[in-house]
Amino acid sequence: ExxxxxxxxxxxxxxxxxxTLRCDPISGHDNLYWYRRVMGKEIKFLLHFVKESKQDxxxxxxxxxxxxRTGGTYSTLKVQPAELEDSGVYFCxxxxxxxxxxxxxxxxxxxxxxxx
Amino acid sequence: xxxxNQSPQSMFIQEGEDVSMNCTSSSIFNxxxxxxQDPGEGPVLLIALYKxxxxxxxxxxxxxxxxxxxxxxxxxxxxxxxxxxxxxxxGPVNFGNEKLTFGTGTRLTIIP
Lengths: 116, 112
Prior knowledge:
The structure holds two protein chains of two kinds.
Chain A: E1 5-7, E2 10-13, E3 19-24, E4 31-37, E5 43-50, E6 53-56, E7 65-68, E8 75-79, E9 88-95, E10 106-107, E11 111-115
Parallel strand pairs in A: 2-11
Antiparallel strand pairs in A: 1-3, 3-8, 4-5, 4-9, 5-6, 7-8, 9-10, 9-11
Chain B: E1 4-7, E2 10-14, E3 19-25, E4 32-37, E5 43-49, E6 55-58, E7 61-65, E8 71-76, E9 85-92, E10 100-102, E11 106-111
Parallel strand pairs in B: 2-11
Antiparallel strand pairs in B: 1-3, 3-8, 4-5, 4-9, 6-7, 7-8, 9-10, 9-11
């Protein structure tokens, strides 16, 4: 069974440009999360989908970030326009819905974003 | 919000040595998780702890859930080269979900 896959693995863009990151969760996983790690700091929660619905987007930094999960399958995270402080590694993770347990999150390899 | 203070930030050890790292919080956690991130990969769950005082092993790894529920420890015995990576502690922000707070990580380097 394929794990969580993310694309691209690395993106280098200039300030002001737009980037779209994609995540394909493990098949059958209703929960999809986006996390971000800025250089040397902790991994921080961005948002959580249950199927196609946004369950919690309290970690999204500002309105330059837009996440979607149409059809409850893959998800995209768009940054527009990108700023220097958006640089970091964006991780996607998925899990099966467990109805209240803290289950095991399966992380993708991450998409490294560098904004110049 | 909740913060997890992880120490040490980095460790340089020789192959075969034992490793200890810990994680502390100012607030109580009901679950403690330890993840490892290999270079170029995403974090992978190593050990999950669900009960205060619990001591759990996974091969050469042993983790403990502190009695106060505000700390946790991870030990690695007889380190080998593939133990290299970043180790993160984490806990759920709210009981029973996967919105996690992570520590800043402990980077482990093994000197040949």
